[in-house]
Design brief:
Length: 374
């Protein structure tokens, strides 16, 4: 199903790499096509594929963030999901409210603005010692729709024709990509390539890929700031935080003037993602053509015994006179709730013993969500 974009050694990928270098972005860009190609052929990995895995490790050891191209997700899947998301958030409040399950952020369904305060969830990687609560910012300037890919949970807005098909197709493509990212992680840590498979996929799982991991798609909508809108002190679109569990696969809002998947002339909305660098400065992370932005969550840091970093990031406000909105497609991933997270065997040694007590993935997530909804 990925034929139109499958092995992406295309000019786009090269252009994205060049664009990143030109922008002098502190967040590296990685073309993963050679790894995907080698895995699809079976047998031993090529040198090119091994090289992708070592660059993956380098990026997550240093910044905890990377932009990837050569991912194989068809353009049209991204375009249609993005458009259906825009159509949903453009509905009148009462139509959106029908999709609110009334369970706060994390449960699925629609959340209006003012529900989330993500900066309150900042903690140590194993979820102990919440440090964010006492200096948390005001509630975030975001509304969201969280999709679990479960018929009995996901509300479907009938006012947006084609929504369910488009959003579920996007979820399934993200699940395919996640498998690649977990294989990359395994190879990069000298583990068997399918080491993580049983924690994320299996019988009774959701969607085409049978996901048993705790994965959800979040459509995050940042409404335009209105003329004269008074922001609370320190209020931003989405406060600084680390992500809670596995990798996050983010499609930033790439373009307000044309297709999301344009190869060039991108004009992303102002006020975007910033990533905290090892020297404690914040750096912008503008989207590159056709690239997903990937970051590691707290469980990845605990699982790898601090070899990989779960890094702080935030979404800034646009300039005061900017009237643009912003929609991001965010696929949060994590292993199944009963997975015990303890340091992987290749990540501990006599010199570097395990730093975190084992914890189930579910208990870790509960700790974090309780803080967010406070």
């Amino acid at each position: 199903n990925n034929s139109n974009n499958s092995m992406d050694h295309s000019p786009t990928s090269a252009a994205a790499v060049k664009a990143a270098e030109a922008a002098n972005s502190a967040v590296p860009v990685l073309n993963i096509a050679a790894f995907r190609e080698a895995v699809s052929k079976g047998g031993d990995l090529t040198e090119d594929a091994k090289n992708v895995a070592s660059q993956w490790r380098q990026a997550f050891s240093a910044q905890g963030f990377v932009q990837i191209v050569g991912h194989g997700v068809p353009d049209e899947v991204i375009e249609v999901a993005y458009q259906k998301g825009k159509d949903f958030f453009a509905l009148p409040p009462e139509a959106k409210a029908k999709c609110d399950l009334g369970k706060g952020y994390g449960a699925g369904g629609y959340n209006a603005r003012g529900v989330e305060r993500v900066s309150a969830s900042v903690s140590k990687p194993d979820g102990s010692e919440l440090v964010g609560a006492q200096n948390a910012r005001p509630p975030d300037l975001v509304e969201s729709m969280v999709v679990k890919r479960l018929a009995e949970i996901d509300p479907i807005p009938e006012e947006v024709p084609g929504y369910e098909k488009a959003i579920h197709r996007y979820y399934d493509e993200m699940a395919v990509l996640l498998r690649t990212l977990m294989q990359l992680t395994a190879v990069s840590l000298d583990l068997p390539i399918d080491h993580f498979e049983p924690y994320f996929y299996g019988e009774g799982g959701v969607g085409e890929e049978k996901v048993i991991g705790d994965c959800s798609l979040r459509l995050a909508y940042y409404p335009a700031l209105q003329e004269g809108q008074e922001l609370l002190p320190n209020q931003i679109r989405y406060g600084e935080h680390t992500d809670y569990t596995g990798y996050t696969i983010l499609w930033q809002d790439h373009n307000k003037d044309g297709p999301q998947t344009s190869s060039d002339n991108l004009n992303p909305p102002a006020g975007g993602l910033q990533v905290k660098m090892p020297d404690d400065t914040w750096t912008d992370c503008p989207p590159l053509p056709k690239a997903f932005t990937i970051n590691a969550g707290d469980l990845i840091q605990a699982w790898t015994n601090d070899i990989y970093r779960s890094n702080l990031h935030r979404v800034m406000n646009p300039p005061a006179d900017d009237r643009g909105d912003r929609l991001c497609l965010v696929y949060f991933t994590g292993p199944s709730g009963d997975t015990m997270i303890e340091a992987l065997p290749t990540c501990v040694s006599p010199e570097s013993p395990a730093k975190y007590a084992p914890i189930s993935a579910l208990n870790h997530l509960k700790r974090k969500l309780e803080a967010t909804n406070k």
